[in-house]
Amino acid sequence: MKTITATNKGIAINYEKTGKSSFIPYQDEPVRQNNDNNRHYQMNSIQYKLYQQLMHGMKLYSSEERATMSENAVFSINNKHLRATEVLNMLKYERCYGHINKLFKVIFPQVKLDYFKDGKYADMPTLRELGITTLDIIDTWIYNKLLPLNFYSLDTDNIKL
Known about the structure:
With about 160 residues, the chain is mostly helical. It folds into 2 domains: about 1-25, no CATH class; about 40-150, no CATH class. It contains 6 helices and 3 strands. A hairpin with a 3-residue loop joins strand 1 and strand 2.
């Protein structure tokens, strides 16, 4: 049997059968700057269009534009938007509940905590409330291969048709 105590310095776990105990200190959260330079990234037209496609999907286009698109283009945009939404939900979930899950994993190592991992069924705050910036989103989408690795260097001068 375990006795778990939360103190102002960390979590203390005492095991009655073995007489052992362990202590998990709290980690200081890095102070996030909320200035506009850190929150927003000035994108050029190419970067902005790629970002908006992932963020909004087919809602970005008017009905006339959708009528001129091929089925493959519509499918591709919808598929990427769905994947981008899933990645954002996981980012939000990790930012919101990640520390709690780490604690529960130490306390209850045999219990799987990945039910809400995708963030679909959990109530979560908005991106702004969680402190997730545009740069965080872009970096996450680059890491998950939804945006190209050279996203930050994309420019009309660099692209050859």
